[in-house]
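Troubleshooting entry. Yesterday's outputs looked truncated, so today I'm pasting the complete records for two proteins to confirm everything comes through intact. If either block looks cut off, that's the bug. Protein one:
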Amino acid sequence: MLVHVMYGKSRDEASVKGDMYFAEMPGKNDLVEIDGALCAVLMTWHTPSLFFAGTKAGILVHQEIPSIFADRTLVKEGVEA
């Protein structure tokens, strides 16, 4: 699945990382690996469009892993589009 990835602590202040392919859509509170770094998914959103052939979903990620993720080992790896 092609996903638009933004990096930051909030969507308002986030920078665009780019579009990446994931085997399945990462969900909120998932851990993902991007460019060899482990990141926490803080937010997800759906961007439906009938007229645009690009990404239909987005995620906000950050490298500071909150304590809620301490026991997680599941990592979804993103591949740049």
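Protein two, checking that the full record survives here as well:
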Amino acid sequence: MELDLGNNAYDILNDWHPNAAKEELTAQLTKQVLVKKEQLPKLYHEKT
């Protein structure tokens, strides 16, 4: 995954306070994770 920080590099990497850039990045990453999670193979455990 490539992370395009664009003009928000300072807001995301150096600013320790919550801000809109971090919220947007977190939302985008959460969407990507959910898509990847659905693509994982399903493991089934047979009860004995």
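Both blocks look complete. Sanity check on protein two: Residues 38 and 45 are 18 Å apart (CA to CA).
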